[in-house]
Amino acid sequence: PDSALQLVPALSRLFVFGRIIYYFTYSYLPVMRAFGFSMTIGPSTASLIFTAVSLIPPYSNLTSSIASMFE
């Protein structure tokens, strides 16, 4: 739905910020790599699941109501 498009810039910023954290902690603090990785994979996976569910016809109304919560 068009109302979900406003999430794209926020998720893009979160992805870039997670990649920056992952890059800088890769050699200095290897334990903190998980934080940067989770900031990258979490929103990407959630977006993929949301898109896949919204393509299923019985659930298209459900995803548009979820997307309207972010307006």
Briefly characterize the structure.
It contains three helices and no strands.
Description:
With 71 residues, the chain is mainly α. The chain has helices at residues 7-28, 33-54, 60-68. α1 packs antiparallel against α2. The longest helix has 22 residues, at 7-28. It is elongated.
What's the structural blueprint in terms of helices and strands?
Blueprint: H1 7-28, H2 33-54, H3 60-68
Helix pairs in contact: 1-2
Gross geometry: elongated
Main pleated sheet: none
Count of alpha and pi helical runs: 3
Poorly predicted segments: none
Roughly what fraction of the amino acids lie in strands? under 5%
Helix share bin: over 70%
Head-to-tail CA distance between termini? 12 Å
What integer is the average pLDDT?
79
What distinguishing features does this structure have?
single chain, 71 residues, mainly alpha, 0% strand
